[in-house]
Design goal:
With 161 residues, the protein is an alpha+beta fold. Helices cover 24% and strands 26% of the residues. Among the domains are: 40 residues; 58 residues, Roll (SH3 type barrels). It has three helices and seven strands, in the order H-H-H-E-E-E-E-E-E-E. The chain has a four-stranded antiparallel β-sheet, with no helix packed on it. It has a three-stranded antiparallel β-sheet with strand order 1-2-3, with no helix packed on it. A hairpin with a 2-residue loop joins strand 4 and strand 5. The longest helix has 28 residues. About 4% of the residues have low confidence.
Length: 161
Amino acid sequence: MVIMTLRTQRRLLWTAAALLALASAGAGLGLALSPLERLEKSGGARAASAEAPAETADEASPLSAYAVIYERDLQRPLFDPKPVAPKKKPPPKPTVTLVGTVIAPNGARAVLKTNAGRIKMATVGQTVDGAEVLEVTADSATIRFAGHTHTLAIQKKAGGR
């Protein structure tokens, strides 16, 4: 009668587990390295090829048949991103400012100051420094500058007036 200690039993179990792991790894490696045609001929992998018949070496597809697969960009996103609308440039600022208006029975006039510091008066339809006067009211003027319409308010002086 052979009496085994607990330590000997553990060593035996560990050795058996290691041998089983090596055997399964070897079997997996052997399957991975061997061509599947050998298994199909022996009848071992019939379930895997139920949809498509096995090709022999003479009937193998040319490499160009797989071009769709190996030319695919694997780093592109799975979906196309939403198109980004180009940012619109803000309209250019007018080169004139409104310093006052004159409302008279014969027509309204805008008193405009140019970037050069000159004061000019203009009626509806006249152009001053690239800004066409469209409308003049008691406290504002509407102009068209570079294709955009702007409403200018009378600028008040820093002294409160």
